[in-house]
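Z., the sequence and structure:
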Amino acid sequence: MSCNSALPPRYVLVTAAHNEEAFIEKTILSVVSQTLLPAKWVIVNDGSTDATSRIVKSYALKHNFIELLDLVKSHAPDFGAQVRAINKGCDLLRRTEVAFDFIGNVDSDISFGSSYFCDLLRKFEADPALGLAGGWLYERRKTEFEPRQRKQSGSVPHGIQLFRRACFEQIGGYLPLRYGAPDWCAEVSARMHGWRIESFRDVPAFHHRPTGNVSGRLRYLYRSGLSAYSLGSHPLFEIAKCIVRLRHRPYVVGALSRLTGFVVGYCRQEERQVPFELVRFLRSEQTRRLHIGWPARQSTPELRDHGIGLK
């Protein structure tokens, strides 16, 4: 596929932004400089109190494919808020009846090169089974960007997920989950429906928001454990994952924080927000991976791709 061909694939984007005046212009400049522009880009201003809306409006006046959706109603902070904002953007796309083949979620603190989406669309063209793809995420560490730690090629971070439309519609889009992890849920659902998922090392994307401090990271990992329980992750898989990471000193506290969150969720026995079929599929995947790679004395490429191996 050439991005300069007469009828290139059409893609649309949705971005949810809340108080992102420090970063969103970088994201906008990345998108408007693409060699293949989106057919439509809905930016949802989710009750921002800073200059986010004003910045988006200034670019929407210059580029007719950008549309701002202002959500002014305040809401309590929760982990499903971003997904609900994204879903409102998707609803607007349906009402405008824009034709598209692919739909992407782009966080408002991400940037990438001018050929980013063209490069990803080439990957989709080369593999009809590819349902969800993204670039290789780099995060700012002090003054430089470095690849995200423990990044796996078989998973795509939420803020740079690009779906084939058929895949996105088949999984029903994103679910606003109590403890977050809509990207993980979407990936499991896509695999359950027979789609392949991949992040590509030769297509870089850059996350500009500084990483949090140690206490913030531990809260995030604790919540990840709660998310794992809510999605139905197998207890033996979570224990095995924790044990493997305990072998590496930098991951000890984080591994224990995640396992603590999972145990708390297990003890509460909260009702899950995902279908039983998804829980059953996820556990079957994890059981197979445990049989393949546990016990394991060292990381292997197959284990790393499935999130069990040492990173």
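The chain has two domains: 11-207, 214-305. The two ends are 35 Å apart (CA to CA).

Let me know what you think.
H.
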